[in-house]
Each structure stands twice: as structure tokens, then as C-alpha cells.
Amino acid sequence: MTNIKDIIDDSCKSVAVAGHANPDGDCIGSCTALYMYLRKNFPEISVSLYLERPKEALCSVKGMSEAEQEVKEGAACDLFICCDTSIPDRIGVAGDLFRSAAKTVCIDHHVSNPGFADINHIVPDASSCAEVLAELFDYEKTDRDIAESLFTGIVHDCGVFQYRNTKPATMRTAAALMEKGIDSAEIIDATFNRRTFVQNRITGYALSRASLHLDGRCVSAVITAEDMERFGAGLKDLDIIVSDLRQTEGVLAAVFLYQTGENEYKISLRSNTGVNVSDVAARFGGGGHILAAGATVEGTPEQILPAILACIEEQL
Fold it and tell me: 149 Cβ partners below 8 Å, 6+ apart?
């Protein structure tokens, strides 16, 4: 695929755009950008957007106000496009619609993506799914609103250009989007930097209880359901914790566990260098990127953490 129009033929009358469960900035930016691009440039096609409600800072992204949080009974589509989703089980609210769609497309950048759709456009070297989409859009047909969403997706997945997945092509793409007149500083501040009081409190609590392992080369922290209840926090308030852990001096890998069920925890992994956390996550049924990955597993932290550390130690 060289252009998004390559997957849209004359028989296509309806398109569903969706992302992964618990959507992050790249997922929100990618899906809303694609939704608005199709609405703007293919007015003859009915386009629907399906996304779970993200953390509050991302709710103001253009297009999010039109996102549906559930699939209506009897809904169908000629074409289903999922963005930033590495496995079909991670498709959020529209999983059933994906399975019934006449044709499916996956646009992604996760190295662990096996290619589960009818058509797969996966670029593992890209900083973000938003960067992949920017290359598939006609630049002259990309307006300011679309550019804002694409820029949001890029800066969230590359940590405002500080992560190692930032390449020269990433900077060139971001610069081209800025030329559309977007307020890049406000996007970064409002969606990436700004934190609620609850987020600050639970992040501080997690960091205060962090532990070092493997001679200081790995750091971990755990948040339980009881902790979340104590601080009045939800799952969307936890996504910054693992990145803060990763910044610990001397650490090569960060492990963050947070409870998602009675006997279930989400593993969030980050690496600075020397550890392929995508391989670690894959051992637990998850996936992601070399430097950022995750999985959901059953068990207690006392059972899960030693197993993760053993995998990391093998690589070290």
C-alpha cells in the first residue's frame, strides 16, 4: 500500500475505523486522523469511528467527540480499518464488527504484529502509527485538524522526540504537519505533559514503593486495585508511571504491574537499551516494540514479577 486510497474501491460504501482497548495518544491520534481524512476526501462513503473513552487529556482531540463507544446491534461495514493494534484480541469496542467485516485492514507499527487482517501495512521502523498514516495520506488533502491528530499520535509514541524510535523521518513528518499551522506547543502541553492531581499522587506513590533488581539494572513498581481505590484513580491514570520508572539512573529496563482483575495484572515494560521487551512480553502472550511492550497475565505480583525478571536477566 502506498496511499490510503489503494484500499478503497468502488464497491466500498461503509468504513469502520477502530483502535485498541485502553487507547493511548498514538491510537487516538491515528484513528481520529484517519476518520477525518476519509470523511473529508471520500464524502460518498459512510465512515464510523469506534474508540473507548481515553484519559481526559485526550478527549479534546479533534474527532473524538464523534467516536462511538459501542457497536449498535446489526451494524456492518464493507471495510474495517484498525490502527495501532498489534493483535486482534486487542481491538477495543469494535472487535465483533472486525470479525464480521467484508474486508479488513490493519495499519500499524508494532514489530510483534503477525499481520492478522486481510491487508496489513506494518512499518516497524516508524515511531508511531500516526507517522505511518501521514505517509499514506495526500499531503495537500491533509487539513489542520487532521494534522493536529497525526502530530498528537507521533509525539505521544516518541515521547516528544526523546525516545530512540525517533528517526530523521519522524522529525521531517512532524515538521510537515507543523507547516499546516497547528499549535504544536499546546498539543504537547495539553495532551502529553499535563497531569491531574490524582495522576501526580498515584505516580508519586508508585515511585516511592519502587524496587531495584538485577544489580540495579532493572526497576519495578506495583499498583493494586486497593491502591487505585485509595487514590480515586482509574486505569487511565497509570500510563505515565512506567515512563517515569524508566528514567531511573543506571536502569536498563522498567517493569510496572497494575491490577486489572481479581487475579489479573497488566505488565507494562520499557527498555533503555540492551533489553528487547517485546520478546519478554511475547513470552506472556503480549507484544509491542523492542523498547516498549506489554501483556496481561493471571497471577499475583509475587508470582509474575520473578518470571519477568528471569526473562530480562537472560538478555542481560
Answer: 28, 29, 30, 32, 33, 36, 61, 62, 63, 130
